[in-house]
User: Fold this.
Amino acid sequence: AFEFAALRPQGTVVALEVRADALRALPARARRAAAANVVPMRMAPCVAPALPGGAAADLVFLCDVFEFVDAGRREDFVRSLRGVLAPGGRLVSIERREAETDAFLVDILDAGFVQHRAAQTVTRRRVMLFEADPAAQSYSVYARRGVRFDARRGHACGRLSRRSSRNYVHRFRP
Assistant:
């Protein structure tokens, strides 16, 4: 958080933390780093809170977070992150290479993001860069109704069976 605060002194960096002890330590660390633009904020596990003043984030940065999120809750967690992003905002996730990053990737794509190439500059980590897919919202509406979206035709084209993947619709982009 403090590195981002130094890069964007005119902006606000909201440092979200689940652990109370880490949250208590943030103000002292911000003073030492002379980062007056860092706002510490408590968050519930696996749910991104509304940002102060209804603000939207230009960037959501996660480092070694997904391995601590239960696999069954990961996609919903990423959807909640998508909800706090400004239009054109980006999601960056850095995870240990030993972690199941392919599963993380699928959950992020299923939550309505498009992946972009990112330089792999962090040792023993996988850097993943995403932005929200503007069409994904319409896909999730179709998915709730049980309708399959045909990306080649650009419209809904049939019913999903109960055995279809719960995330089938989110994988397609027009």
